[in-house]
Amino acid sequence: PKGVMQVEVASTKASREQGLSGRESMGDDEGLLFVFETPGKYGFWMKDMKFPLDLIWISENGTVVDIERNLTPDSYPKTFINEVDAMYVLEINGGLAQKFGLFLGTKVKITQ
Question: Which of 5, 81, 87, 88 sits in a 20 to 30 Å window from 112, CA-based?
């Protein structure tokens, strides 16, 4: 992928439930990375969101396995679920997945 992002990590049940709900905006080099204990299918919705998002599901080995682009707040209560097991989900501003070169099969590096 192209570039580096600084992300917050949501690794607890409470932080994953809160997500980005209620926030007014997020920078174009920022995101929220959901970290799960085991690979699986993880559903997301746009409840209480105020701006569009791209959702990127990432496998345990760092491969992008599913993407939903430009999800708008008015898509709530629809739930978006990955088809291939993922260990991580990255939420970034809508439209940025393409800008950062994130497509199915893309390898990403997650560092601390």
Answer: 81
